[in-house]
Design a protein that fits this description.
CATH topology of the domain at 577-833: Rossmann fold
Structural class: alpha/beta
Largest sheet: 7 strands, mixed
Number of helices: 31
CATH class of the domain at 577-833: Alpha Beta
Strand content: 15-25%
Distance between the termini: 92 Å
Helix content: 40-55%
Shape: elongated
Strand order of the largest sheet: 13-23-24-25-21-26-27
Length: about 900
């Protein structure tokens, strides 16, 4: 227990798996935590300071299953093993304890075991640091570095207060490593705590920027980082912190990491966490993968391909040439049906080479990892041969083909020759080297497995040589193997003492041994151990060769993943009827026959009516200059008619197009969207004291404060969570702000029909509505978006469909009739007609005039020089003058 407490003290914050024979045992508070988390029995073992010591344990052979559950619950585990032979401990004295030490810290972001990882999901550890000084509120720069040690991926980037949350949501790390002093910033801590990642505070020394470059250079064995690119100080600091944490948790083992690659934030569409959740890109609102966009359209057949596709979908590009490069690859496979299907069959059998390589490099691999690399290299070569038969390959596929050709084919053949067909999970079990690979090993196995047959053959040879049919070779625990013959027939043996050594005389029999028999006995006794040792030597040699060829293997693995994604997207496009989008630098957003990919598939599975496709055009009017910005569609219509689906499908089409996928539409022309915003649906945050309406306002505020002309904004039912005129006022002001200030392309769904009047005053605001048909008091939803405005919400008909009691429905009709009659006498529209536009609001209250009206207006005009004004400034000035005139007239 003294040893346990010493090791536990050196690893605070981790559950200590303390190796005791065939079990990992946990003691004290660790045992209490683990027994609750794992549902295993809590017992006791001995006493400490007069109190029973709580204890529980898990079998070593099943440890991965228990680790998976603990890691999933957010725990960290320190694995403590024996680090010396028990025989050595006995030499020090009978009371000596076998030396033990922690060989690995298991954390959510440092997993490599196949059973602990999701094949199709990356497992990122992200280190986050802040440039010296500043805080989240004052826009400080942040350095990010994220590593997946299971594949070797290593990326760095820079962010700021406005984009940090979106960048973290895109990367979606399993574990977040931050300097502990950053958590003193309340705003930063609140943002971090909202992430699903496990938080690991560490001393700020791990992020020392002055030594960051040297740490990275030492790790990658280079004198300078110039060959890897140019990095900011914050990025280098984050990268050094990530490496330091990996080295700390891996206890000296070095995962085969790629050199750090810089990802510029401007090269990807920025999607904040709320928008990701609202659009259900990677998970549904309930947190499930099933039902998300990713789940609906992922047709990849390899784990690496699925991870790459998820990464592309999470971070759509804004680089038009790279988008076109991806689309070209999909287009190629779409036109090469036979090749696509042939490669798809190969890819289905391709193992996860990157993760197998990482396990071998970290000394956690087994024979099956070697076999996976052998199969993967063979698959890479086969696919490269098929691609080589085609001319004019598009850029992405040609690059992949060249990387596949560089796969170490000779090494793959050597692995195939060395490994047996049936392989154990662990190398310590032996039996994984194929028969015939090494004659010495085959002989040892024969001795181990066929010792009786070898002895019988020796007995037969001696009996024939000496002419003694009664000669036997026997075994007992005292003498071991010996030759026995009747005393009367022992003369032939006693006459040759140099060869036959007398061991024992019995009543009527004599026993002898020979040098050959002694050597054979020794070989038989140690054959199993020697065979295993020889197999382990072969494993280590092969693993070393694999690690030496790691760069080429990883290149081939990346190429297979890229081919899988392009192939899968072509398969998706063909099966679902997707078309190639046109993506350029304009502000266009024209969709013909657009569909929602998830809803469309759900309708098909349910055997219901086919999905109703709809058009959308949010780009500038024909003949307008690009800087005049896109349009906003104001969409009215009843609930359940499909407004939210229409909003979401257009956002998803933009995401798919810029991720490099064909899209669910007859045609699509999309000018690059740099930021995507969505406020759809209702949710609360009661833990932080936020009502549904407060959450809605916080998300709307983020949109109005950050959206720009290249953004795409999706807003649904803004202002419905408060009183009617409050909500109407907020929605109206938000539309004006989007139109006049943000100048974004947008879709704005509302039940405030009064807002449709704004289209007469805002030139880029377009009214659209969802068609419905009334039939015998019921409403039929046609799900078709057309230009125009709805005059009714049909809420009572929807309530009837939902099953409200008939009495409630009829009472609602009566109340509605009275309210509509009252509104006809005092229409809300008349109030709106008298209100000025958002752009004309006075900057401050206008004082009462102290001079004649004409003089004041004249002075204001004298201060305006039209030649120095932009069209927008001139318009603002005109509205300000009109507002000033109205104010002065009102006040006399």
């Amino acid at each position: 227990m003294a040893q346990f407490l010493e090791i536990k003290g050196a690893n605070p914050g981790s559950l200590l798996f303390y190796r005791m024979g065939d079990f990992y045992e946990l003691f004290f508070e660790d045992a209490e935590i683990a027994s609750r988390a794992l549902g295993i029995t809590l017992t006791k073992r001995g006493k400490h300071l007069g109190e029973d010591i709580p204890m529980c344990g898990v079998p070593v052979h099943a440890a991965d299953d228990y680790l998976q559950k603990l890691i999933g619950l957010g725990h960290r585990v320190a694995v403590c093993e024996q680090v010396e032979d028990p025989a050595e401990a006995k030499k020090r004295g009978s009371k000596s304890v076998v030396r033990r030490d922690v060989i690995r810290l298991v954390t959510p972001g440092t997993l490599t075991e196949e059973r602990l990882l999701e094949a199709g999901q990356s497992n990122f550890l992200l280190a986050l640091t802040r440039a010296r000084g500043g805080s989240l509120d004052d826009g400080a720069a942040y350095g990010l570095a994220w590593i997946d040690i299971s594949t070797g991926a290593f990326r760095v980037g820079e962010s700021d207060a406005a984009t940090l949350a979106a960048d973290l949501a895109r990367i979606d790390p399993r574990e977040l490593v931050v300097a502990d002093h950053l958590l003193d910033d309340p705003a930063f801590r609140r943002m971090i705590e909202e992430l699903p990642a496990s938080l690991s505070p560490v001393p700020r020394a791990l992020f020392d920027g002055s030594t960051a470059g040297d740490r990275l250079s030492r790790y990658f064995g280079v004198k300078t980082l110039d060959g890897f690119g140019t990095f900011s100080r914050a990025e280098l600091s984050a990268a050094a912190g990530a490496l330091a944490y990996v080295e700390k948790t891996q206890m000296g083992e070095r995962p085969p990491l790629d050199p750090p690659m810089r990802e510029g934030g401007a090269s990807r569409m920025l999607i904040d966490p709320a928008t990701r959740a609202n659009l259900e890109l990677m998970r549904t609102l309930s947190g499930d993968r099933s039902g998300s966009l990713l789940s609906a359209i992922d047709r990849t057949v390899t784990g690496a391909g699925s991870r790459l596709f998820a990464s592309r979908l999470a971070g759509p590009l804004t680089d038009v040439p790279e988008i076109q490069r991806r689309l070209d690859a999909v287009d190629f496979f779409l036109g090469e049906t036979f090749l696509r299907e042939r490669l798809r069959e190969y890819l289905k059998a391709a193992p996860d080479m990157a993760r197998a390589l990482s396990r071998l490099a970290l000394n956690r691999g087994g024979p099956r990892d070697l076999a996976a690399l052998s199969e993967g290299i063979s698959t890479a070569r086969a696919i490269a041969r098929h691609l080589g038969q085609h001319d004019n390959l598009p850029g992405e596929i040609e690059d992949a083909s060249e990387r596949l050709l560089r796969a170490p084919y000779t090494l793959g053949q050597e692995l195939a020759r060395a490994l047996d067909l049936e392989l154990p999970l662990l190398k310590r079990d032996g039996g994984f080297v194929a028969e015939g690979y090494l004659e010495e090993l085959d002989e040892l196995r024969r001795l181990r497995d066929d010792s009786r047959r070898v002895i019988a053959r020796m007995q037969s040879d001696l009996s024939e040589e000496l002419g003694l049919r009664s000669l036997k070779i026997k075994h007992n625990n005292v003498l071991g193997w010996f030759i026995e013959t009747p005393t009367a027939q022992a003369t032939a043996l006693t006459e040759d003492p140099g060869r036959f050594i007398h061991r024992q005389t019995m009543a009527g029999a004599m026993r002898f041994t020979t040098t050959a028999l002694g050597e054979l006995e020794a070989r038989i006794a140690s054959a199993g151990e020697r065979a295993l040792a020889l197999e382990l030597e072969i494993f280590d040699r092969l693993a070393g060769e694999v690690i030496a060829a790691g760069d080429a293997i990883k290149q081939a693995a990346d190429a297979l993943a890229a081919l899988d994604v392009a192939n899968a997207l072509a398969t998706l496009a063909e099966s679902e009827g997707y078309s190639r989008p046109k993506v350029d630098e304009s502000l266009a957003f024209s969709i013909e026959g657009g569909r929602h990919p998830v809803v469309e598939q759900a309708l098909r599975r349910q055997g219901g009516d086919p999905f109703v496709a709809n058009d959308a055009d949010l780009g500038p009017e024909a003949g307008e200059k690009a800087e005049q910005a896109g349009r906003i569609w104001l969409i009215t219509g009843p609930n359940m008619a499909g407004k939210s689906t229409f909003l979401r499908q257009n956002a998803l089409i933009a995401v798919l197009a810029q991720a490099g996928s064909f899209v669910p539409a007859r045609s699509a022309h999309i000018g690059v969207v740099d930021r995507l915003f969505s406020r759809v649906g209702a949710a609360d945050d009661l833990a932080r004291g936020r009502s549904t309406f407060m959450v809605e306002m916080v998300e709307t505020a983020a949109i109005l404060n950050q959206a720009g002309p290249r953004s795409l904004v999706i807003l649904d039912e803004i202002g419905r969570g408060t009183a009617t005129f409050d909500g109407l006022s907020i929605a109206w002001a938000a539309i004006e702000h989007l139109h006049q200030v943000n100048r974004s392309r947008g879709l704005f769904a509302t039940h405030y029909h009064e807002l449709t009047a704004l289209s007469a005053r805002l030139p880029r605001l377009v009214n659209a509505t969802v068609k419905v048909k009334e039939w015998q008091g019921d409403v039929i939803f046609l799900h078709e978006i057309v230009h125009g405005a709805a005059d009714r919400s049909y809420g009572i008909q929807v309530a009837k469909l939902a099953g409200l009691p008939a009495a409630v429905v009829e009472r609602a009709r009566a109340v509605l009739t009275q309210l509509e009659e009252q509104d006809r006498r005092t229409p809300a529209q008349s109030l709106i007609d008298d209100l000025p536009l958002f752009a004309a609001r006075p900057a401050a209250p206008v004082a009462a005039p102290a001079a004649p009206l004409d003089d004041l207006l004249g002075e204001a005009l004298d201060g305006i020089n039209p030649d120095d004004m932009t069209p927008r400034e001139a318009l603002d000035a005109l509205y300000a003058l009109k507002q000033q005139r109205l104010t002065m007239k009102r006040e006399g």
